[in-house]
């Protein structure tokens, strides 16, 4: 199988990396060969408040996964001229596979995404059915999310294809989120240890998420500390 996590990654956090690690661990325990794990940042055309430019989000994901030992970054979705639906992102790795190996491509997501799949106004139902039937989902459930009840609800696509949904429980409560990281940055607070240090440095080097206006750079990022990225606007 190939694992793909689609998201804003605005910015990427340790929670995103942990989610990929748990998904890979669970599938390997179940006897699958995991051929690759990818983070696919969403296209800039996806409307979301405070969404950093795709090139920044791709670079931050690359920095975040540099020492992951297996998680890679696919910039294809960002490079498209328009918003690309999740199904088409999942179809790409399989299309490039060399016969006779055609891996099954699974979407890795959190419980919030799975809950959105239960809302017919959030997903095109024909595309969602193809995603669930031809691919499948690995849902990493945070503390307190009731995923089991969601899958047991009759009359929904999630119920019909519940056998194609693997639920992985996060044994260590993790409430880190990109929105919380952005909020802390806007307040001028430290986000160290919420996301890799290389990502924090990149954010300040490029003035993302209100850091330019805040005007207060963490002491450990002051000149004299080793730079991890020399890219400039």
Automatic annotation (TrEMBL):
<dbReference type="GO" id="GO:0004515">
    <property type="term" value="F:nicotinate-nucleotide adenylyltransferase activity"/>
</dbReference>
<keyword id="KW-0808">Transferase</keyword>
<comment type="similarity">
    <text>Belongs to the eukaryotic NMN adenylyltransferase family.</text>
</comment>
<keyword id="KW-0662">Pyridine nucleotide biosynthesis</keyword>
<dbReference type="InterPro" id="IPR014729">
    <property type="entry name" value="Rossmann-like_a/b/a_fold"/>
</dbReference>
<keyword id="KW-0548">Nucleotidyltransferase</keyword>
<protein>
    <recommendedName>
        <fullName>Nicotinamide-nucleotide adenylyltransferase</fullName>
        <ecNumber>2.7.7.1</ecNumber>
        <ecNumber>2.7.7.18</ecNumber>
    </recommendedName>
</protein>
<dbReference type="InterPro" id="IPR004821">
    <property type="entry name" value="Cyt_trans-like"/>
</dbReference>
<dbReference type="InterPro" id="IPR005248">
    <property type="entry name" value="NadD/NMNAT"/>
</dbReference>
<dbReference type="InterPro" id="IPR051182">
    <property type="entry name" value="Euk_NMN_adenylyltrnsfrase"/>
</dbReference>
<keyword id="KW-0520">NAD</keyword>
<dbReference type="GO" id="GO:0000309">
    <property type="term" value="F:nicotinamide-nucleotide adenylyltransferase activity"/>
</dbReference>
<comment type="pathway">
    <text>Cofactor biosynthesis; NAD(+) biosynthesis; NAD(+) from nicotinamide D-ribonucleotide: step 1/1.</text>
</comment>
<keyword id="KW-0067">ATP-binding</keyword>
<feature type="domain" description="Cytidyltransferase-like">
    <location>
        <begin position="6"/>
        <end position="183"/>
    </location>
</feature>
<dbReference type="Pfam" id="PF01467">
    <property type="entry name" value="CTP_transf_like"/>
</dbReference>
<dbReference type="GO" id="GO:0005524">
    <property type="term" value="F:ATP binding"/>
</dbReference>
<keyword id="KW-0547">Nucleotide-binding</keyword>
<dbReference type="GO" id="GO:0009435">
    <property type="term" value="P:NAD+ biosynthetic process"/>
</dbReference>
């Amino acid at each position: 199988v190939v694992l793909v996590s689609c998201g804003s990654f605005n910015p990427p956090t340790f929670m995103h990396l942990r989610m990929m690690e748990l998904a890979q661990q669970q599938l390997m325990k179940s006897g699958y060969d995991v051929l690759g794990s990818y983070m696919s940042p969403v296209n800039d055309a996806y409307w979301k408040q405070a969404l950093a430019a795709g090139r920044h989000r791709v670079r931050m994901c690359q920095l975040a996964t540099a020492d992951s030992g297996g998680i890679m970054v696919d910039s294809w979705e960002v490079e498209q001229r328009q918003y690309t639906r999740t199904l088409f992102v999942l179809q790409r790795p399989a299309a490039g596979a060399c016969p006779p190996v055609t891996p099954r491509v699974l979407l890795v997501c959190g419980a919030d995404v799975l809950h959105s799949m239960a809302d017919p106004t959030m997903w095109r139902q024909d595309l969602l059915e193809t995603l669930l039937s031809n691919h499948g989902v690995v849902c990493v459930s945070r503390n307190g999310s009731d995923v089991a009840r969601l899958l047991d609800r009759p009359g929904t696509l999630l119920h019909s294809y519940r056998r194609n949904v693997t639920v992985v429980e996060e044994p260590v409560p993790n409430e880190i989120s990109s929105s919380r990281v952005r909020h802390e940055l806007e307040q001028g607070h430290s986000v160290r240890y919420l996301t890799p240090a290389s990502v924090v440095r990149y954010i300040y080097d490029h003035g993302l998420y209100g850091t330019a206006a805040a005007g207060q750079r963490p002491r450990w990022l002051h000149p004299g500390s080793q730079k991890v990225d020399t890219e400039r606007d």
